[in-house]
Write a structure and sequence with these properties.
With 332 residues, this protein is an alpha/beta fold. It contains twelve helices and ten strands. Strand 6 and strand 7 form a beta hairpin.
């Protein structure tokens, strides 16, 4: 029996999948974030080792012929050290092969199509777009992190929600239901507390704003990403401010694709991540705009860990067989 191991390694969780040569799923596992870019190396590799051991619990590690590990934030400078560390990890867990490290954009693209060329747009906690040629990243936009980039991401949406709430409080912006949502999420206001929209006293408004600002700065900046669903809820309820944020996010995400894709191109555009691949207004608008410009090209990504396992298997079979395996493993 030949087995193929795939891993999707993020900052918040690590997911693994094992398939056999027929594409049958033999095991899955999930563990804590194992990305060395986001965590201390020792902590990251303990998480990776735990996920690998868990996914191989009921299958022989010695049967794994190939393994692919997808990680965000891994570029040419980090690859040599990362590959060496993963080789040591493979020895520790009993893998007979050396895992191949690829960027998360490669895995995300493979999660949507078996084609070797196309475009991938990822918008989850962060946001980036990449051109894929021969299953390699050959061009890209954004992905620069929350401080200087990631426009249209969940972090960006959460940050805009807070800004809109603060603007509504001090009169710089229009009234918005985002104020109530942000106050509830950050301050835990309940039924017995004043509803922020109805607080007319200037001192009370200033106090609410100060508490919101304090709550934001008390946590890690990236935690603002958890406020992104507030924008979706408000936009679907007809809130004009939230609707404007949604429209801006969609424009920014489509703008990520523009520089790396030809106008008449017919290769797939894979969308991945909770913001553009989930059930959100931003996803609906972004996909509609992409489909209007590139009809019939937009595909929603499936399971990334299974896609990584497919990438491992695709290296060992003819191209035609790889496409069949993709259909079996990912349901495409």
């Amino acid at each position: 029996m030949e087995l193929f191991l795939g891993m999707d390694v993020g900052g918040s969780r690590s997911r693994a999948a094992v398939v056999d040569g027929s594409g049958r799923l033999c095991g899955t596992a999930e563990g804590p974030g194992g990305n060395p870019v986001s965590h201390p190396p020792d902590q990251a590799f303990r998480a990776l080792a735990g996920a690998i051991r868990a996914v191989l619990h009921d299958v022989p590690a010695a049967a794994v012929r190939s393994a692919v590990v997808g990680m965000a934030g891994v570029g040419p400078m980090q690859l040599p050290a990362m590959s060496a560390d993963l080789a040591d990890l493979a020895d520790a867990v009993g893998l007979p092969c050396r895992p191949t490290v690829v960027g998360d954009v490669i895995v995300a693209f493979a999660a949507g199509t078996a084609e070797p060329d196309g475009t991938v747009l990822i918008a989850g906690t962060g946001a980036t777009a990449a051109r894929i040629t021969g299953r390699e990243r050959t061009a890209g936009t954004d992905g620069h992190g929350w401080l200087v980039g990631d426009t249209g991401s969940a972090f960006w949406l959460g940050q805009r929600a807070v800004r809109a709430a603060l603007a509504a409080l001090d009169g710089r912006g229009a009234a918005t239901s985002l104020l109530g949502g942000v106050a509830e999420a950050l301050l835990g206001t309940g039924a017995g507390d004043p509803v922020p929209e109805t607080v007319l006293n200037a001192d009370a408004r200033a106090d609410t704003a100060e508490r919101i600002v304090h709550a934001v700065h008390a946590g890690p900046p990236i935690a603002l990403a958890r406020l992104a669903p507030l924008v979706s809820i408000a936009a679907r309820a007809g809130d004009a401010v939230a609707g404007g944020i949604v429209a801006e996010a969609a424009s920014l995400l489509v703008a990520d694709v523009d520089p790396i894709r030809d106008p008449g191109e017919r290769t797939p555009i894979v969308v991945a991540g909770s913001v553009v691949a989930g059930d959100t207004p931003v996803a609906d608008l972004t996909r509609a705009r992409l489909a209007a410009r590139w009809p019939g090209c937009v595909v929603t990504a499936g399971d990334a860990a299974r896609a990584a396992a497919w990438l491992a298997a695709a290296r060992s079979v003819p191209p035609g067989r790889a496409a069949e395996l993709h259909a079996t493993i990912l349901g495409t």
